[in-house]
Amino acid sequence: MMKTLFFETIDSTNTFLKEHYSEYEDMTFVSAGVQTAGRGRNGREWKASEGKDLTFSLLIKDEEVMEQYKILSVLSAYSVLKVLESCGVKDLSIKWPNDVYAGGRKICGILLEGISGEKMECLIIGIGINVNEDSFEGEYLHTPTSMKLQLDRQIDLDGFRDRIYRELIDRIDGLKKGTDLYPLIRDYDYLRGKTVFAEVRGIRKEVSVLGIDENGSLEVECEGEILHLTSSEVTFHL
Ligand code: BTN
Hints:
This protein has helices at about 15-20, 65, 70-85, 145-150, 155-175, 180-185; strands at about 5-10, 30-35, 55-60, 90-95, 100, 105-115, 120-130, 195-200, 205-210, 220, 225-230, 235. It is of the alpha+beta class. It folds into 2 domains: about 5-185, Bira Bifunctional Protein, Domain 2 (BirA Bifunctional Protein, domain 2, 2-Layer Sandwich), CATH 3.30.930; about 190-235, Roll (SH3 type barrels). It has a 7-stranded mixed sheet, with helices on both faces. A 5-stranded antiparallel sheet has the order 11-10-9-8-12, with no helix packed on it. The longest helix is centred in the C-terminal third of the chain and has 20 residues, at about 155-175. It starts with a strand and ends with a strand.
């Protein structure tokens, strides 16, 4: 039995699960009509309009899945990408570690948070997808786009929400069964082959990206050395 919760208004679906994870079972899906304090990565805010966008969090408590947390953000991005692709969105890619891009613009962001004491208690996968947004005002670090802007039509948000949840369930089941994600994501790797500036161990360097590796880290070449970077070790300047 999977549990889904919907709030018309909430501060943040990630914050809700952080505070209430002990009351809910593995794979609980919490979505919101609007978030009043939506959070993005690196302390940024996540903006979304009431009734237009999809904002939700998925609670992971299965130990086998939590152990694979490194690949989980890429798997989540890939799951979103596949549903967007089936809706007809073109030119899709995963921008490591976990954004989904359409036409070179950000259409989805993912915030993965873990709660641990002596052991890992749970993981919370928070996902924001720009669905029926007509325009974006204000400052954005990465130029955004929406499904509506890409497809030139209105999307049925309820149907889309169900498809995303179903896809995540199937992909996480696949992960448990040992499905290798690596060959699947190669073709959608936005940074692969690009030269970017990365702060590697605190020093800003130019690196050539070889691509997302089997563990969900980013394989780069830097001054003749092959490095496997995790998202906390590197910030990008494209
Ligand atoms: C990013 O790209 O910075 C990550 C954005 C993650 C946004 C989602 S929306 C649902 C969930 N609740 C939050 O407060 N944040 C995540």
